Amino acid sequence: MAQQRRIQLSTQRPTSTVCVLGTELSLDVCGSAPKDAVAFHVQGTPGVKLYVVHETQSIKLPSSVSRWPLAAGTEVLLAMDAPSKDVGDEKVRISYFREAGGVPVGRAMLYLTCVEVSLDTDVSRSGAVSRTLLDKATWTWGPDGHGAILLVNCDRDDPKAETLDNQDTAIRSYAGTGTSHTRNPLFPMFFPPDFPFLQPFSPPDLKDMSQMVLRTRGPRTIFAGHRLLLHVDFSDADKVGVFYGGNSIALEEYKHVLGGSKLAYTIKPSRHQEESIFYVEGLTFPDVDFSGLVAFHVTLLESPEKVPAAWGVRVSHNGGEQSPNAVPPPSQGLLETPIFTDTVVFRVAPWIMTPNTAAPLEVFVCSVDNNEDFVAAVGAMAEKTKCPLTVCPLLENRQDRWIQDEVEFGYVQAPHKTFPVVFDSPRDQGLKNFPVKSILGPDFGYVARQAPEGASSLDSFGNLEVSPPVTVQGKEYPLGRILIGSSFPRFGGRRMAKAVKDFLVAQQVQAPVELFSDWLLVGHVDEFLSFVPAPDRKGFRLLLASPSACYQLLKEKQEEGFGEAVMFEGLKEVSKPTINEILANEGLRKFNNYVQSCINWNRDILKRALGLAESDILDIPQLFRGNVATGAEAFFPDMVNMLVLGRHLGIPKPFGPLVGGQCCLEERVRALLEPLGLTCTFIDDYFSYHVLSGEVHCGTNVRRKPFAFKWWHMVP
């Protein structure tokens, strides 16, 4: 339904008003009728479309009815199809009659100026702003949905700046010179020729923003008596920033005009341009107190003190027109009145995680005092997949090797742009400064959440994983589901910080699943699960650590006569139990029965939450040690805690019993994974990671390719 405005008429003097293209004016024909009038006749100039609403029917004029009764509920509606060339160039005349009278007892004149005022965004999500018949004031999900999208401008386009781009009110460039940006020179990084950093200079900060275009057409002098106001709701003002450069293309001419304490901005339409382009940035991601939806409005205000006298035409007592100059001056001190508002709604794009099964784009590892061989092994894997390797040096990591725990890589996406965003955990240990100092940059964003109540081990991002895309009882999760560990179902215990969990839930597109991980000493979900790509079924397999599978394997080898084969062959100063000793250790078996029950609980949750069948799950042999009070840790290097780079897997070397010259644990894992087309590389992390309660996955991190699926096409 078209926006409608009520217009009061007068038989004593003419009325002048603006009709905005696409709206209707409702004329109060009864309110202006002389006392003894019983009927009226209405006619307008060719640029005006007139309708009479009588007895619930709308009749377009002209019609066979020449006079209409002044009955309750009768109204005249008008609309215009094109902007006016001059002020007041179209008009409507209402003539009033007594019963059976042939001479009008009064006339009301309405002078009209049609203008176009339209606030437009990329409602159709095509990547460009265009005119559309879609409802700009609503936002809907799904492949047939509509509504504009806003990115949080959380990168830092000027490396010399001290803050993120969404924390200032300036337009940033790559140091403002057009020179390419590189990361910390201590990092060996290699970029392809088409990498955004190496492209010719352009205003990158503007490219992170979404355009909002105000279109105005009609006589420019009309705005001498009217004001255009761009405004944002008070509740949304701290969520967005708006920049405007007028007709300039110079970055220094772009001013921050809306957002924060600035709730409104007066627009002065150019005499020579019909479009004013605004650039909108998001300042914050959806969260527990922010749905992600933001509305902008443009309102046309009528200023009584500035109505041009030329609009007025006196109407004589007998209906004739007199000189325009006979109009009395408007009253002084009257407030502006709104006569039209156009609204557009944006949704701030969510932060999206990528699963292990996504293609790798960049591998991260820390260099510390005793892990040279580990770094070399990870580098060799990265080279196999032609994936750049970033080594965080000791100066940057301050002996903190657990890069998986510090950050999680994801991305944000709008139809016009996609860029990676690193999520910084509340952990804040030796790698605390690494994400801001060495990752944040042009087209690489940053977001963080803190734990005011104090961070626990469960706030580290080894406790944050995401599944590949799944369908659960007909419900599609095309971006997978986030997996986090908790103390559930046990009362008390450790849980992920509320601020982190609330943030993940608020993104909406990867509905989190809470698992039970507090039974572990460290408490991370990556200690008992992982995902690897597969060519069949759902396109992946879920790997679960399995004490039962390990005991079954060891029992098989014992029955084959290898009971005296030892664990940890070749490792110095490490106890080397035999298969027989492990199987005879009742305390170890009892504890692993407990561990298996914890993993089984999670297995059932994962099957329900991800829609998995048993054939989608592979059990990876693994034993744990510890006790119920302090928690479990891997008895030998935890093989599910692996690095997944496409079809190449970097698996912690388990140092299992040698059977026929081969590690029986490695042999069993190869038999499970190689038929899926995967290549298994076993990496020795025993002294550099395992004895410190971590493994290969804990000591590495991977930035991965975004999903091909567009998040706005889903229905949460």
TrEMBL record:
<dbReference type="InterPro" id="IPR013530">
    <property type="entry name" value="PAD_C"/>
</dbReference>
<dbReference type="InterPro" id="IPR013733">
    <property type="entry name" value="Prot_Arg_deaminase_cen_dom"/>
</dbReference>
<dbReference type="InterPro" id="IPR004303">
    <property type="entry name" value="PAD"/>
</dbReference>
<dbReference type="GO" id="GO:0005737">
    <property type="term" value="C:cytoplasm"/>
</dbReference>
<feature type="domain" description="Protein-arginine deiminase (PAD) N-terminal">
    <location>
        <begin position="1"/>
        <end position="113"/>
    </location>
</feature>
<protein>
    <recommendedName>
        <fullName>protein-arginine deiminase</fullName>
        <ecNumber>3.5.3.15</ecNumber>
    </recommendedName>
</protein>
<dbReference type="InterPro" id="IPR038685">
    <property type="entry name" value="PAD_N_sf"/>
</dbReference>
<keyword id="KW-0106">Calcium</keyword>
<feature type="active site">
    <location>
        <position position="526"/>
    </location>
</feature>
<dbReference type="GO" id="GO:0004668">
    <property type="term" value="F:protein-arginine deiminase activity"/>
</dbReference>
<dbReference type="InterPro" id="IPR036556">
    <property type="entry name" value="PAD_central_sf"/>
</dbReference>
<keyword id="KW-0378">Hydrolase</keyword>
<dbReference type="GO" id="GO:0005634">
    <property type="term" value="C:nucleus"/>
</dbReference>
<dbReference type="Pfam" id="PF08527">
    <property type="entry name" value="PAD_M"/>
</dbReference>
<feature type="active site">
    <location>
        <position position="698"/>
    </location>
</feature>
<feature type="domain" description="Protein-arginine deiminase C-terminal">
    <location>
        <begin position="339"/>
        <end position="713"/>
    </location>
</feature>
<comment type="similarity">
    <text>Belongs to the protein arginine deiminase family.</text>
</comment>
<feature type="active site">
    <location>
        <position position="524"/>
    </location>
</feature>
<keyword id="KW-0963">Cytoplasm</keyword>
<feature type="active site">
    <location>
        <position position="405"/>
    </location>
</feature>
<dbReference type="InterPro" id="IPR013732">
    <property type="entry name" value="PAD_N"/>
</dbReference>
<dbReference type="GO" id="GO:0005509">
    <property type="term" value="F:calcium ion binding"/>
</dbReference>
<dbReference type="InterPro" id="IPR008972">
    <property type="entry name" value="Cupredoxin"/>
</dbReference>
<dbReference type="Pfam" id="PF03068">
    <property type="entry name" value="PAD"/>
</dbReference>
<dbReference type="Pfam" id="PF08526">
    <property type="entry name" value="PAD_N"/>
</dbReference>
<feature type="domain" description="Protein-arginine deiminase (PAD) central">
    <location>
        <begin position="115"/>
        <end position="302"/>
    </location>
</feature>
